[in-house]
Specification:
- There is one protein chain.
- This protein is mostly helical and about 375 residues long.
- Helices cover about 80% and strands about 0% of the residues.
- Helix 5 packs across helix 14.
- The two termini are about 25 Å apart.
Length: about 375
């Protein structure tokens, strides 16, 4: 349930972007994009030290702390009266999410015997994939009927159930010999590297910055990534153990995760802008129109987890990535300005939903394996 909340909050704002922008008329779209970007950058850089903290001090304790921080931050997001407040609350939300996510996976691995772990991790990944896919459709309905604030307030009752059930059901799991990879310099290098590149891209058409200035910022970000790699090779216990990437499965699973993640995020923005701006659907109608895709994720994720437990992840990943590419080609060439949902849009949704169901859980499971 907690992982569902974290995953749905990474994509729910795709649907509410314009609504939130209207709530803060003095802010630009570029300013508001940091509500999404600040969350993902902090979440990504905090995950690794958070995993070490959970191993050291107790996965249940850190999981419960993460859920609590996430709930407090969700309340702060809903109550935000400015974009800067909202961005700050989203950063706090990202810290809570980073504490609970690796702890939840560790608790699941500890709870299952070796021969059941492929199915268990695939199911854990499937929940995240389903939530991320449901976010825009669910968000469009909630935001249009109750306001964008309720995209955050609805986290609170679900999170309280997580806390209650977690206290009564979860068993503590700990490995005090594990080292905490709290590499502050590595974290700052990664945050500034990714943040600088993102800022350069987001502001590329801004009137406040020239193109040469922004290109310099992007190049600075790329340089910082190389500095981070050098630092990680030099430091005894770096934020990221780069020797992990010597494993082919781990390396290619992460490459696929990066490209699929980018395409997945772009896809939902494209869906909403196309349907509302080109086909002139209302926001709730758009949310309903994209829902068949996420619904297709569920059966394929469940079936995929069982198949992976028997024959491995590779066939699923190859099939899922190829069908995802086909769904991209479909949307590139088939839909036009005349609204024809059942013949021009729905087949692509089934293709993309099937692909996400096969790929997302298998990527997590393959990397963990």
């Amino acid at each position: 349930m907690a992982v569902f909340l974290v995953s749905i909050d990474t994509t729910v704002l795709f649907a509410g972007f314009n609504k939130i922008l209207l709530s803060f008329p003095k802010s630009s779209a570029a300013d508001l994009s940091w509500v999404l970007n600040a969350y993902t950058i902090v979440y990504a850089t905090m995950l690794i030290p958070a995993g070490g903290i959970a191993d050291k001090f107790g996965r249940k304790k850190i999981f419960m702390l993460g859920v609590f921080v996430f709930l407090v931050a969700s309340l702060g997001c809903g109550a935000a009266t400015s974009v800067s407040w909202l961005i700050g609350a989203r950063i706090l939300q990202a810290i809570g999410a980073s504490l609970l996510s690796p702890a939840s996976l560790s608790l699941i691995l500890e709870a299952f015997p070796q021969n059941k772990r492929a199915v268990a991790v695939s199911s854990w990944g499937a929940v995240g994939a389903l939530a991320a896919a449901l976010g825009p459709g669910f968000g469009s309905f909630i935001i249009d009927t109750a306001g964008w604030q309720w995209a955050f307030y609805l986290n609170i009752p679900v999170g309280l159930i997580c806390l209650w059930r977690g206290i009564t059901l979860l068993k503590e799991s700990i490995n005090p010999r594990d080292k905490i990879r709290f590499d502050l310099i590595g974290m700052l290098l990664l945050i500034f590297a990714v943040g600088t590149i993102t800022f350069g891209i987001v502001e590329f058409n801004s009137a406040h910055w020239t193109k040469p200035e922004l290109m310099k910022l992007i190049l600075l970000g790329l340089l910082l990534i190389f500095v981070f790699i050098g630092w990680a090779k030099y430091k005894k216990d770096p934020l990221i153990d780069l020797t992990l990437f010597e494993n082919k499965t781990f390396r290619y699973a992460n490459c696929a995760g990066l490209t699929i993640g980018i395409a997945f995020s772009i896809m939902f923005f494209a869906f909403f802008f196309w349907m509302t701006s080109i086909w002139h659907y209302s926001l709730p109608m758009t949310g309903l129109a994209v829902t068949p895709g996420p619904l297709t994720v569920i059966p394929f994720a469940i079936i995929g987890g069982r198949i992976a437990g028997r024959i491995g992840h590779r066939p699923l990943l190859l099939t899922g990535c190829l069908t995802y590419a086909l769904s991209g080609l479909w949307y590139m060439y088939i839909p036009d300005q005349n609204a024809s949902y059942f013949t021009h849009w729905l087949p692509g949704l089934f293709l993309s939903g099937m692909s996400v169901g096969l790929v997302m859980p298998s990527l997590s499971a393959a990397a963990v394996h």
